Automatic annotation (TrEMBL):
GO terms for molecular function: protein-transporting ATPase activity. It comes from the Bacteria. It comes from Tamaricihabitans halophyticus. Belongs to the SecG family. It is found in: Cell membrane. This is Protein-export membrane protein SecG. Keywords: Cell membrane, Membrane, Protein transport, Translocation, Transmembrane, Transmembrane helix, Transport. Pfam families: SecG (PF03840). Its main location: membrane.
């Protein structure tokens, strides 16, 4: 079970990094490298932003639950 949680932690960590970098920055930043500056010409970008926010919160919640689960497992094994 601990191996599954470790793998889950690695996957969610990488996914969380990717999702945070995809957010539109206020001053350009890394998100402009992926076409963040072209967003004003795209229609419906606010729906995409909301979905990206929801997905980021979901992955972040899974990440926190995984860390708490690993912490509890390590405490029980000691």
């Amino acid at each position: 079970m601990q191996t599954v949680l470790n793998i889950m932690l690695i996957v969610t960590s990488l996914l969380l990094i990717l999702l945070v970098l995809l957010h539109r920055g206020r001053g350009g930043g890394l998100s402009s490298l992926f076409g963040g500056g072209m967003q004003s010409s795209l229609a419906g970008s606010s729906v995409a932003e909301k979905n990206l926010d929801r997905l980021t919160v979901l992955v972040g919640s899974i990440w926190v639950i995984t860390i708490v689960g690993l912490g509890l497992m390590m405490k029980m094994n000691v």
